[in-house]
């Protein structure tokens, strides 16, 4: 590391990432709220139709839709948690440092995946 390589991002750089993450967090939370509202609505709508076979088909579609909404909600919740954890890393000064190599994660990668804890090299090593 004696070649002048940075080991952490400056306060200004961290502030830029924090702004990016807060924006994504707000959007993710409003999307999660919308998904939860959709789940509630799809739970309410099953009482109108009393046509035997049609009702059964609708129930099946409702169930499939509910499952996919539940999966979407779970993924969104995980994304929110990852973003919140990234904000904690910004506060404690460990943001942008690869947990495998200890080197700085590139700004390009952090802009694309702001909650990542792995550099692209470490990520590729993991998946091989």
From TrEMBL:
| Record-linked Gene3D superfamilies | DksA, coiled-coil domain
Q: Offer one Pfam family short name for this entry.
A: zf-dskA_traR
Per its UniProt entry, which superkingdom is the organism in? Answer: Bacteria
Keywords assigned by UniProt, alphabetized? Metal-binding, Zinc, Zinc-finger
Cell inner membrane listed as a keyword: no
Q: What's a Gene Ontology MF term here?
A: zinc ion binding
What residue stretches are annotated with the Zinc finger DksA/TraR C4-type domain?
A: 93-121
The residues forming the signal peptide are none
Keyword 4Fe-4S tagged: no
Q: Where are the zinc fingers (dksA C4-type)?
A: 98-122
What name appears for this protein in its UniProt entry?
Transcriptional regulator, TraR/DksA family
Taxonomic lineage of this organism? Bacteria, Pseudomonadati, Bacteroidota, Cytophagia, Cytophagales
């Amino acid at each position: 590391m004696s070649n002048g390589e940075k080991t952490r991002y400056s306060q200004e750089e961290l502030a830029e990432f924090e702004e990016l993450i807060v924006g994504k967090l707000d959007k993710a939370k409003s999307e999660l709220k919308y998904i939860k509202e959709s789940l509630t609505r799809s739970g309410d709508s099953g009482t109108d139709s009393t046509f035997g076979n049609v009702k059964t088909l609708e129930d099946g579609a409702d169930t499939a839709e509910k499952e996919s909404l539940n999966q979407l909600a779970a993924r969104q919740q995980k994304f929110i948690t990852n973003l919140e954890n990234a904000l904690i890393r910004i506060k404690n000064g460990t943001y942008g440092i690869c947990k495998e190599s200890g080197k700085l994660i590139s700004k390009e990668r952090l802009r694309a995946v702001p909650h990542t804890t792995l550099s692209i090299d470490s990520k590729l090593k993991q998946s091989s």
